[in-house]
Amino acid sequence: MALAGGVNLNLRVEPFIAFSKASMLSPDGRCKAFSAAANGYVRSEGAGMIVLKPLALALADDDPIYAVIRGTAINEDGRTQGIALPSQRAQEALVREACRIAGVTPGDVRYVEAHGTGTAVGDPIEANALGAALAVDRPAGRSCYLGAVKTNLGHLESAAGMSGIIKTALVLDRRMIPPNLHFDRPSPEIDFDKLQLRVPTTLEPLDADERPVFAGVNSFGFGGANAHAVLETAPNGSGRSRAPRAIDDDRVEILTVSAHALEAL
């Protein structure tokens, strides 16, 4: 068994100044992934942790399983117009490689948790890469749902991958897709119909039947680094339906919360 986690704290002002000068941050503090109004990303703080365990052992130990990681892949291609710009060609190749490793036909992937930073340049590159890669053997009229938890939480930077994989595991566990926020008008640089991609704006069911459902988690970073994971619904039903393990109810902890003003608190 292993624990994998990430944490991000914004403790210094210098990154805010640098990213502002580079016109990378949203002036209104809203992540508008894949929207025509996308105007930059939103820095945020957070931490996440997941438990990793071989499937056979998790089943033998009767653990609650939220999702199964079928395969992962990484690559790097820094030959773009800037350090922060991703490569569409490299991302497209990576998604196909991750599906090959997972033994999953790209067209069978029903949901992708995108990097979705909410930038006017990065979002179209990512969407076009995902649409091209996942179109292989995709039935007509069976679009792939596209989501971005950054519209809810902002960009956790070094912990962003954790928020993405946790959300995707919950999507598969509950077979429900939460809506993307701030998606009033689709980006004109993304042909969603042609790419067979769909951004949900209301809570929608992932699939009504009990077949295994596949989902992807996509990410990229400075310098051309790309990562993709393919997840599958758990074989033993919903993790949330399992009885919780006993905890020490006698333990009492105090959490202090403070703020500069009552409204902020």
Architecture overview:
The protein has one domain (2-241): Peroxisomal Thiolase, Chain A, domain 1 (3-Layer(aba) Sandwich), CATH 3.40.47. The longest helix has 15 residues, at 88-102. The protein is globular and about 50 Å long. The chain is 25% helix and 20% strand. The protein is built from 7 helices and 10 strands. A 6-stranded mixed sheet has the order 3-10-9-4-5-7, sandwiched between helices. Strands 1-2 form a two-stranded antiparallel sheet. It has 265 residues and is α/β, with parallel strands linked by helices.
From the 3D structure, determine the CATH topology.
Peroxisomal Thiolase, Chain A, domain 1
Count the domains.
Answer: 1
Q: Can you tell me the CATH class?
A: Alpha Beta
Overall radius of gyration:
19 Å
Question: In what range is the share of β-strand residues?
Answer: 15-25%
The averaged pLDDT comes out at 92
Strand order across the largest sheet: 3-10-9-4-5-7
- Give the distance, in angstroms, between the N- and C-terminal Cα atoms: 38 Å
Instruction: Pick out the low-confidence regions.
Output: none
CATH homologous superfamily heading: Thiolase/Chalcone synthase
Number of strands: 10
Largest sheet: 6 strands, mixed
Number of helices: 7
What structural category arises from helix and sheet content? alpha/beta
Helix content: 10-25%
Q: From the coordinates shown, what is the CATH architecture?
A: 3-Layer(aba) Sandwich
Overall, the morphology is globular
Order of helices and strands: EHEHEHEHEHHEHEEEE
